[in-house]
Amino acid sequence: MDSIALLLAATLNAGTVLAFAALGLLINERSGIVNLGAEGMMLVAAIAGFAVGVSTGNDWLAFAAGAAAGALLAAAFGVLVIYLNTNQYATGLALSLFGSGFSAFIGIQYTQQKLPERPHFAIPGLADIPLVGPALFRQHPMVYIAIALTVALAWFLYRSRAGLVLRAVGESPESAHALGYPVRRIRLIAVMVGGALCGVSGAYISVVYTPLWVEGMVAGKGWIALALTTFATWRPARVLLGAYLFGGVTMLQFFLQSEGVQVPSQFLTMLPYLATIVVLVLISRNKAFIRINMPAAIGKPFFPGS
Amino acid sequence: MLKLEARPEQSRLMSIGSPLLALLITVVVGAILFALLGKDPARGLTMFFVEPLKSVYALTELAVKATPLMLIALGLAVCFRSNVWNIGAEGQYVLGAIFASGVAMSADKSTSGWIVVAVLAAAVIGGMLWAAIVALLRDRFNANEILVSLMLVYVADQLLSYLVYGPWKDPAGYNFPQTITFLKSTQMPKLFSGFRVNGGVIVALLAVAVFWVLLFRTYAGFQLQVGGLAPAAARYAGFSSRKALWTALLLSGGMAGLAGGLEIAGPLGQLTPYVPAGYGFAAIIVAYVGRLHPVGIVFSSILMSMFYIGGELAQSRLGLPKSLTGVFQGLLLFALLACDTLIYYRIRWQAARPVPLKSAAISSEHKVA
Amino acid sequence: MSAPLSKRSVIKLAGWGSLAAAAALVGCGKKEEAPAAASAPASAAPVAASAPAKAEPLKVAFAYVGPPGDGGWTFAHDNARKALEKELGDKIVTSFVEKVPEGADAERVFRDMVGQGNKLIFGTTFGYMEPMLKVAADSKDVKFEHATGYKQGENMRTYDSRTYQGAYMAGVIAGGMTKTNTIGVVGSIPIPEVIRNINSFTLGAQSVNPKVKTKVVWVNEWFNPPKETEAAQSLINGGADVLMQNTDSPAVLQTAEKAGKYAFGWDSDMTAYGPKAHLGSAVINWAPYYIKATKEALDGNWKGGTGSWWGVKEGAIDFVSISDKVPADLKAKVETVKAGLKDGTFEIWKGPIMGADGKEVLAKDAVADDKFLGGVNFYVKGVEGKVPGGDKK
């Protein structure tokens, strides 16, 4: 039983990484912008966070640095895509490539560095409850922040005026524009906030998850986060659950291995991606269904005054 | 303050100037990076732009590297021109390599050299099959082709991994994840002895010619382009968007598969987990920088190869980090995309005009975001 | 539509041609100097014209599969390279290329090394085997040394280290320190070398604690810290309280540190990465071999076509930085084993040894030879699970 509790704990940890990034991308995509540069942003944020963590010893500053790095790159992306109307997919890809090269570049002097000793977290009292305690209450505060963020984001999107405007911008920027809303500014803010969250995710990887810097350590999690946002049909709560699911698959793979089950690990690793395709098919099948679930203007450039 | 003003029509000059300007920006930033790293910028730049062209061997290596990029980019150019966003060329490339290997493994000592044709044909089929999945899902279920093709890249990688770690592993290979080294008969004939470059280069150049004809001289190509540029007009003219979708995806999938097959029948010579080299993604940049034009793609694929090889040389000769290649590639595309706006917009310098108080209220209501 | 297009292409050709020409003019004047990565003293670079008996320094090049900063495999090789420089001073000039991918691209790197005048080239991973063979065949005057491979040539030979000896010594400590009688290994790629290490680890543990069981999890890569972290975590989840790894980073040690378990350093001394969890490091010291090989190349005694497999005896393998947490008698046992390995009186792979399927693989008092060891593709008794890809005896 103990191992199940530990498996759950590890899943929460792994899922938090994806959750932050996917929630950020969700904000992006709700405004109509697809940022394929998630991987690049996360990598640069990871090295930024690690570097700050090493020099200041303060985790929270590291997360802030990661967020700042992500927001900065996202801003560059945003200016190109929103104001200069460059192709979103190509620009995002360029960001990805640039980010992975750039992060490796500045990371060179950090490959041997270590962070100060990692603190242990436990909520007093709750952490000692058998089974549930070790599984849920010994996590890094960021895990709980991710959950809180999900709730906040859901409230923001569906219960606040600002969230409504954001969704409107993503559904029909022309209508929002006609109503007088500064579509491009809103999109830029959304992109930057999204970038900041991807940055937090990146910093979490290098500061909490695997406290090291290694080139390419994000290892495709940015792309998974992109898939996750779609898989969760752009709804915050589903994103969080999906993050845990996707995060859990890798742990599941190792769990099965160490229990002696002989499924080729590659098929397990394929699962999240196949699942995403299935979900995509399901939600896109019906034109009406799509309209309910997918921001209609996603990926399309917006020309005010056209 | 600087203001962007839309041009009445696209600037012809900037269409050509934009890639050059982007290259220039990349070079300048590169020089700065080299200086920051304490290396001579001029030497750094020669690693990237001169060394790869210096000797016959270097030129052949350039050709070896450029061939897959060119092939994939040609297919992608057709795709992007038709507004079909195939981001999953990497996965189609891997499937091509897998199918090619499957055929190559069936060769034995008595097989004639003609098996190469079968190997390549299998590769094309493999890539097409993988792209067909994307086309089917988009056609039947409206599933976004970007995400589906991207997801399939991961699935392809895992499939490859499964095969080389499992059923296709070389029994005499000490349990290392790789297939047997394929027999010489399955390999493309080399063009000159002592160099790695093989008939693949000829195939690539032929493909350039074929695609040029296809895009600019055939009715089908015309339909594809109109479908991408003005979908409403295409619908009105009766051009089938469904046909365009399938054509674009099958074509680009086939080309990506062919590239994979040529690598198997060429420099790689066996199937390993290292087959996915990122060519499918780099080809997107190649396609863009080459302006989605077959001839432009020839040049941009050479340029991209120079970045790859130059990065290696900069590392081995100057001790510069390998990550520079990725930085350059990303920078080039960024700069290109930014410079491309100059094709559609002019930069104007406008002095900020003082707004009279009276009309301030009215004009702010009409302010555009 | 055709005329403007071809004009465009011509202009483009002219544009890029002139850019290339400009770059060529810039680069034209500079001749190729010695690689900047060499840290040999300045006297290494100039020609021998002035000094009487001083010969042109031997150019030695290294191809690494990872970054020297990986804290593991490549770090060990790079440390040895630096030791080589220190030992042979201005007789040699070394350089390296990092992160050379295993596969076709490696060939280009090796050819470039040859083209740059390197006469002794070390390739530090299995995946360079085929590319090195090809380049060696074309460059008969260059000597090629391939680590962990099995194909040789007239001017190419292989070298390896008996990492399983380090694994055994780690196992002795693991067996003594485990409280759950479950120890875990994060495996990289299921090749004989790694399986042998897992087995040796288990044999070492069983020598002090016959009840011990080993769990194995495979990441299928040499180096992937996040995945190694997850694998280590799953071993801990499964009850293992002492971990070992055959992967190239300190991630497993760090995970153990975080979870309050024990682990070892591998390839290099990893104490700093997990001070509370670290029990000892099984390190590889490539310097003795590199110095020997380079001296042979300098003296003209280098011969290809052979394979060297060095261990504790030759100074290539060591077990260092044993933690104070390890009780004195356990420490003493390790030292005894080490001494026995050094003078050849102790054999790790000496029968009776049972396979995990219950069949005897080594009869009583039989000593395994290198051929047997090289083909280990089975688990010994006490290791849970099956070898990926099936047991082959």
Write the layout of secondary structure elements.
The complex is a heterotrimer of chains A (306), B (369) and C (393).
Chain A: H1 2-30, H2 38-56, H3 59-83, H4 88-107, H5 132-136, H6 141-159, H7 161-171, H8 173-178, H9 183-209, H10 221-231, H11 236-258, H12 265-284, H13 287-293
Helix pairs in contact in A: 1-6, 1-9, 1-10, 1-11, 2-3, 2-4, 2-9, 2-10, 3-4, 3-9, 6-7, 6-11, 10-11, 10-12, 11-12
Chain B: E1 2-6, H1 12-36, H2 41-49, H3 56-81, H4 89-104, H5 115-141, H6 145-165, H7 200-217, H8 219-229, H9 231-237, H10 241-268, H11 279-289, H12 294-318, H13 324-344, E2 345-349, H14 357-365
Antiparallel strand pairs in B: 1-2
Chain C: H1 2-28, E1 58-63, H2 73-88, E2 92-97, H3 104-115, E3 120-123, H4 129-138, E4 143-147, E5 156-161, H5 163-177, E6 182-187, H6 192-208, E7 213-218, H7 225-237, E8 242-245, H8 251-259, E9 262-267, E10 278-284, H9 287-299, E11 307-310, E12 317-320, H10 328-343, E13 353-354, E14 360-362, H11 370-374
Parallel strand pairs in C: 1-2, 1-3, 3-4, 4-5, 5-11, 6-7, 6-8, 8-9, 9-10
Antiparallel strand pairs in C: 10-12, 13-14
